[in-house]
Amino acid sequence: MSVGEPKPPRLAVLLLRLRLREEQRASVESDLLDLFKTRTSRSGARYARRRYWRDVISVCAHALEVRRGPHVTPRTEREGRSSMDALGQDLVYALRSLRRSPRFTAMVVLTLALGIGANSAVFSVLNAVLLRPLPFTDAGRVVNVSWQGSGYLQALSAIKFQYWHDNARSFDTMATWRSWLGRLDIEGNVTSVQALGVSRDFLQVLGYTPALGRGFAADEHGPAGQRVAVISEALRRKHFENAADVVGRTIRLNDEPVTIVGVLPESFAFPYEDEPVELIVPLGWSVDPNDIAENWPTIARLGKGVTREQAQADVASLTAPFRTAYPSQVSPQDRGMTLATFSELYVAAGVRRVLWILMGAVTLVLLIACANVANLFLARAAQRRGEIALRAALGATPGRITRLVLAESVLVALAAGALGLLLGRWVAGVLVALTPTEVPRMAAVGIDWPVVLFTSLVSLATSLLFGSAAAWPVARIRQSEVLKESTRGRAGGGRVRQGLLVAQSALSMVLLVGAGLLVVTLIGLTRVDPGFDPEGLIAVRLPSKPAAYETSRDLWKFEQGVVQQLEGSSVIASIAAASSLPLERGINTPMSIGGRSDVAGTVEWRAVTPGYFRTLGIALVAGRTFEDSDEEGGRPVAIVNEAFARRYFAESPIGQRIKAGRLKGEFVGPGVEIVGIVADIREVSLRTEPRRTMYVPQAQAPTLLSNVLGTMPVFIARGRFAGGDTERALTEALRAVDPGLPTPQVFPLHDVVARSLARERFGATLLSVLAALALALTAFGIYGVLAYTVRQRRREIGIRMAIGGSRQHVTRLVMRQGIAPVLGGVLLGAVGSIVFSRVVAGFLWGVTATDPATLATVALILLGVAFAACWIPAREAANLDPVRALNCE
After folding, report:
1. What DSSP character marks residue 130?
2. Helix residue ranges per DSSP H, 550-682
3. 852: helix, coil or strand?
4. In the prediction, which pLDDT does 419 show?
5. pLDDT at 709
6. Which of the 8 DSSP states describes residue 546?
7. pLDDT above 90: residue 680
8. What is the pTM of this model?
9. How far is CA 852 from the centre of its chain?
10. Which among 294, 358, 415, 520 is placed 20 to 30 Å from 533, CA to CA?
11. 312-to-296, 453, 595 alpha-carbon distances in Å
């Protein structure tokens, strides 16, 4: 070293000579000296001396590890310490390395945690709704028995249940039930209770045994059986103060004395009902062979050693003899008895598809996060090329260096997994709030052991994924070149980083197109006119049908009482009752015209009070609406909508007769006379055109169709004033008619319209959030890679500007480097988005799966975000001082 040149710290040089072997000392000391000189000219002697100390300490520490450990040569690796010791060393070093780079560690942990948290949240919903087994003993043997009609599954009629119960040989036993809201009187304390009426072997099918007392005896299930009940542990704690002598006590259920004979175990759960079951009683039914109402859901327990396929063949073989014995119970289109899973029966097909689509979407987000983290690790590895080369010079093998990088990735993934679980718990709560109400088992959504295991596996898989992408170019570093070139900033893995940007952009394009199509669908549906005016309308209904209102006459008297209470009110402008609300499930029944016995088609059937059309603002097109004189025993009448009139009548249908509803294979009664035509409304869905609909007076509603509904009628009121006066008036009227009714549900009709779009809003909202997250991660990845590339190319940019290159030229050069992989990703993503859009095609309305406008808009958004992400590094490069850039090199 010549006189006047900067010199490294003598103490550091002495430490280096003492700690290294003689054969290593000369080359390593020379390389470190070159680094010291370059740093001195670039950043000053003080900075260079400090960095020299850090390099010396790092080299000496690694030299000590090499002496103690098995990592000098492949042979000594095989003869040295165990692989677990080596792994421990790698993890300790990786932890120290990450602690020295807190900003880098925080960025990669947060990026991965977002992807892992989203996956954990969606998987928790998917697991609770679709994957988790039923909470029964030996749940794999419990199956649902359903009747397959014309392309759909439904519950059984009473005689179907009895026939398969007596003749199926593949089942240990079968059971059915009916839920209802009971009025419970315990020593004068009156409350409502969620009850089940169950068949004889209900508890045996589920595999539960009462924790106290006993179950039901055989003679307690008939119509004349003793009135007994088994209560839940929650009911015992709430109303009996956890008394041990509750068995044998008498309570009053719907004003009848009932003896408690048992208490269910605390683990008892029945996911087929939305509300927790508090009390079960014997069903006490008698089977009527002529009753075709399919009101009885059925579950069965397979016999030991019987597979589902064997049981399916068994139940299917009984369809033909049943058809012969009970022809009125089977339609020609019916396919017969079949077995089904819980999700097939109780989770709508559309909801199942939405959940799987969301699972696929969060997987794409996680892949984008992994690509981002891999790019960050590649940039970090390039900055550490000198350190890595020194390790290689000291005897570290490419395998050892690769393991060090993988150890860092594993630690990062574990930290991200832990943080992701916390984020996932919060996001899962948001998902529960957004999920449509018809999705069952949402109360079971949470971070349980399956979710923790899933998150752990995802964390491990991601660590291997991005760790391998980062370790591959690191293992190819040539130590003879790096120690001389590290200060010039040659970066390894450039092609890998560009490829990762292309992949990120393509995946973001796929998610953005899917979200865009669902958003366009949602916007289009919100603009659909439902055919009625929901403004100012308030609806009220009871959560379940009390046992006191079993017949149509009981229901009609109840409705009359409530309507009479509110007619002429200073608060209520108009009041009506209906069997169901628009845009909610009603009854679709066969129909004939002109007294014929053949089926002309199907019709949506609604039972309403005279004020229904005026209250909802449905226009009368011809004829008249219902009157108070249209009562039970009077001339049966009906009103049809315009869609019905257009479909079945060339001229006015007023005065024509139609029949609806079949019993024993025949239409019920002499039929009804059409007295009016009203405007079309969207009775079923905003997606579908108005269905053919007939309205009948509530007073004349057939008993069969009223009982099929299984719920109380809903009351609809239009208030005279804004505010809560309408709600109070409705609830007070219900209490005045029957003080023992449970707390009613009161909601504006706007909520009904919103609920009809719940599935579309759920899918569009979540996919949009995931697409936005993917876009943000992609923008961050583009910015990070380009900013790093600019720093590595400072010398080249300085030379370009020194020989006359303009700022605009440099800006275009950098922008082109950032936009080029995004353009490739857009083209690749356009192809992938067409495939993905076909997956969501079943949810689209008013837009095609390959909508050019959506594709073009998404491409422009992605390119715009990429342009913004590239602009900051490009401006930084354009403002670079060429003199300083060249002096630093």
Report:
1. I
2. 552-566, 612-616, 642-648
3. helix
4. 93
5. 46
6. B
7. yes
8. 0.75
9. 28
10. 520
11. 19, 34, 41
Q: Per residue in 464-493, pLDDT tens?
A: 877 776 666 665 555 444 444 444 444 445
Tokens of 405: 């990088």
Residue 412 · residue 112 · CB < 8 Å: yes
For residues 422 and 117, is the Cβ–Cβ distance under 8 A? yes
d(CA 516, CA 768): 7
Please give the Cα distance from 68 to 722 (Å, whole number): 82
Query: Which two three-digit tokens encode residue 494?
Result: 């450039």
User: How far from chain centre, in Å, is Cα 649?
Assistant: 45
Residue pair 786/819 in contact by the 8 Å Cβ criterion: no
pLDDT at 32 over 60: yes
Quick one: CA dihedral 809, 815, 818, 822, positive or negative? Answer: negative
- Averaged pLDDT, 690-716: 72
Of 441, 543, 518, 525, give the one whose Cα is nearest residue 756: 525
Identify residue 168 by its one-letter amino acid code.
Answer: A
Distance CA 641, CA 204 (A): 49
Q: Strand pairing partners for 660?
A: 591
In the predicted structure, residue 302 carries a pLDDT above the cut 90: yes
- In the chain, the largest separation of any two C-alpha atoms, in whole Å, equals 122
- The DSSP line for 303-342 is PTT--HHHHHHHHHHTHHHHHHH-GGG--TT--EEEEE-H
Residue 142 pLDDT level (bands cut at 50, 70, 90):
very high
Within 220-326, residue ranges assigned H as helices are: 233-240, 308-317, 319-325
Q: Which residues contact 527 (CB under 8 A, 6 or more apart)?
A: none
Element (H, E) at 385: helix 385-393
Q: How is residue 375 written in tokens?
A: 């790019």
Out of 24-38, 352-366, 530-544, which region has the weakest mean confidence (pLDDT)? 24-38
DSSP reduced 3-state for 563: helix
Q: Which residues pair with 144 in a beta bridge?
A: 299, 340
Q: Identify the pLDDT of residue 489.
A: 42
Give the residue among 20, 104, 86 at the shortest CA–CA distance from 59.
20
DSSP 699: G
d(CA 378, CA 498): 11
**Cα separation of 492 and 604, whole Å?**
69
User: In angstroms, rounded to a whole number, what is the distance separating the alpha carbons of residues 563 and 734?
Assistant: 9
User: Which helix (H) or strand (E) covers residue 623, if one does?
Assistant: strand 620-623
* pLDDT tens figures, 593-641: 876 666 677 888 888 988 899 999 999 999 999 988 888 778 889 999 9
Tokens, residue 450: 């399956």
What sign does the dihedral 177-178-181-182 (CA atoms) show?
negative
d(CA 736, CA 728) in angstroms, rounded, equals 12
Q: With cut-offs at 50, 70 and 90, classify the pLDDT of residue 386.
A: low
